[in-house]
Design a protein that fits this description.
The protein is mainly α. The chain contains 15 helices and no strands. The chain has a domain of 102 residues. The protein is globular. The mean pLDDT is 94. Pathway: Secondary metabolite biosynthesis.
């Protein structure tokens, strides 16, 4: 009698569509905020919004790196909705510097457009909720001068990403990883280079996206050049792990990690400015950041859910260790020249990031994200092939 057992093939995932899972929820959120609904109705919409976000990560783009990026974007949308629907009332609390009247007195259409601007202003430039540690705003500049300079920056970031991606695609650890591959296997120096190359991709990618939005917005007259400070902070502040995340990297998520952290502190009865409040907010911030990226993990594959979590939550522990050391050094009364202490700080950040980044990168390498082609064209690899053909 023939064996009737049939191996079940893995279910085929449906293709992700930007319209119903990114654009439509975004517009609906602005509509709901524009109506100024009561809290119980906002909670109902929040449940629907959360369902759409979770449904989105069940789909796939067909590319693992893109899946991770879009999944993390869905995580960001989820927490943006959490902040705007549960922890704030934009119509009552928020004002833009150009608002002359209360938004409640405006037409519904204008309120929805105003709310859409809030959804897409995570740093609150020009709003009364502007978050801390924003880079300096550009000086008033002629429109076309601003556009030319930002387009030049787009080209620079593209080439920077291309250099990083060329290194990744020329390193067999990323393109043909052995079982249980780890970036620590190639030695400390290449571990540092691999970590820097991997993180350059989101750094340059988010910068290019932001700059292109700035060019379009200023070009169409929707905003002025001075409303578009740099995407990230300056490297000169990144001499502590706290500053690396707080002043350099975490610009776009500070609005909701702050509101969630403060909410938790209020529920626990911690007074603002005390160390229990400060460190609770620190750990909540990285917990939220970790969960956000877990949306990306899940979109790559449910077996990877939580893979990003250890790296992001570890940053809170690294900052705590850093604070303890700084406190002990200050208690000893040891005087260190500012240049020396800053140089030591940069070295410490480099060591910490090199030490912790494998928790973020190794799983992704083994999942095959290193094989994804992020850029449509690679001038750097084209140039390298041209040079090698003549040698």
């Amino acid at each position: 009698m023939p064996n009737s057992t049939v191996a079940h093939a893995a279910p085929v995932r449906q293709t992700f569509s930007v319209g119903p899972y990114l654009i439509l929820p975004d517009l609906l959120l602005a509509v709901v905020l524009g109506f100024g609904l009561k809290f119980r109705f906002r909670v109902l919409f929040y449940a629907l919004f959360s369902y759409i976000c979770i449904s989105g990560i069940l789909l796939t783009t067909g590319d693992k790196m893109q899946d991770y990026s879009i999944g993390s974007t869905l995580g960001g949308q989820f927490f943006t909705a959490t902040h705007l629907l549960l922890f704030s009332e934009p119509l009552a609390q928020y004002r833009h510097q150009e608002d002359k009247y209360e938004p409640k007195k405006w037409s519904l259409w204008r309120r929805m457009l105003w709310s859409w601007c809030i959804v897409h202003s995570p740093r609150g430039i020009g709003w009364n909720y502007q978050v801390s540690n924003i880079p300096p705003r550009p000086l008033p500049t002629p429109k076309w001068t601003f556009i030319r300079s930002r387009l030049l920056q787009v080209v620079q970031f593209y080439l920077l990403m291309d250099v990083a991606q060329s290194y990744i695609h020329m390193n067999t650890l990323f393109t043909r990883p052995p079982p249980n591959a780890t970036i620590t296997s190639q030695g400390w120096l290449l571990q540092m280079i691999s970590g820097a190359a991997w993180m350059t991709t989101p750094y340059a990618g988010m910068s290019m996206q932001y700059l292109l939005f700035a060019v379009v917005s200023v070009g169409l007259g929707f905003s002025d050049p001075e409303e578009w400070p740099d995407t990230f902070g300056t490297w000169k502040h990144a001499y502590t792990v706290r500053n690396f995340w707080g002043k350099f990297w975490h610009q776009m998520i500070r609005r909701y990690v702050t509101s969630i952290g403060k909410f938790v502190c209020r529920q626990l009865g911690f007074q603002p400015g005390t160390w229990p409040s400060s460190y609770t907010q620190l750990y909540i911030a990285f917990f939220v950041s970790a969960v956000l990226h877990c949306f990306g993990d899940a979109m790559v594959g449910w077996e990877y859910l939580g893979a990003s979590f250890p790296f992001f939550i570890s940053q809170a522990f690294g900052i705590t260790l850093e604070d303890i050391v700084i406190h002990l050094v200050r208690r000893t009364g040891l005087k260190v020249a500012p240049r020396i202490s800053t140089a030591i700080g940069y070295m410490w950040v480099a060591v910490w990031m090199t030490f912790s980044l494998p928790w973020y990168i190794d799983w992704a390498v083994n999942a095959g994200l290193g094989r994804s082609e992020v850029l449509p064209v690679s001038p750097v690899r084209y140039l390298l092939r041209a040079v090698s053909s003549f040698s």
